[in-house]
């Protein structure tokens, strides 16, 4: 899949289900009859515990909460388990997709999490959370919290045998970066059975009612997230209950200061409309009680939102992955 996404909507106004109610192409379209059409998605990939046939990484799917359906795919690299008794860092990974599309089980995120496990040597838990509009925010936040609590319980054999609870990381890209942040906030506020070693946010989905420099319309008119599209996304995924002044997408400084995780990495892309929100969050962290060494800002020149997912062999993608590997290890 190309990193360039066409942001103009096809000129159709109806399909067999009726008139369009909400058009957020290329992500999602909702019709007045209730039908939802998702565009930004990749094919389902089955799990496989055969590491030898899966590029050295075994995977399996688990159900975390039968009542809500929240589940996860676990990734365990064979090289990471080669040393008997060695405990591995755990990365609780939360996929992106504007809170309303994509999946932990799709090709895009299966491949990324597999690569993350292979490169870091960590046990990766990729969370399958409920999506808007069928399940508006805060369902995704609740599901991520349930997943973290499940990881902390060490009830799964892979977690019991290999996980090091003292080296737990929350990570995510785009909307997943936002969800990972709020999961860390909740762990700081409500407590968790394990401490959070680090928070990794790649091109995190934050916004606001007042424009920052990167949130203006680009001269070339081509962007993964045009500002006018982002303005409409958050009200949609919250079922109209919140606007772009919502602190959940524009965190107040006192909330940032409350985080108790030890370290943070924020990655931004030069052409991303959300770039300056990520920079601002990193700056807020440095203004708090954190030292400069505890906050890592990674900037990718010439790239747009989510480029690393669709072009993993690009030099900038490899550099970003290496920054995450170094942060985890």
UniProtKB/TrEMBL annotation:
What would you give as a GO molecular function for this chain, any one?
Answer: hydrolase activity
Q: Which residues cross the membrane?
A: none
Q: Which domain of life is it from?
A: Eukaryota
Every copy of the Alpha/beta hydrolase fold-3 domain together lies at 91-308
**InterPro entries the record matches:** AB_hydrolase_3 (IPR013094), AB_hydrolase_fold (IPR029058), Carboxylest/Gibb_receptor (IPR050466)
Q: What is this protein called?
A: Alpha/beta hydrolase fold-3 domain-containing protein
- Source organism per entry reads Lolium multiflorum
The taxonomy runs: Eukaryota, Viridiplantae, Streptophyta, Embryophyta, Tracheophyta
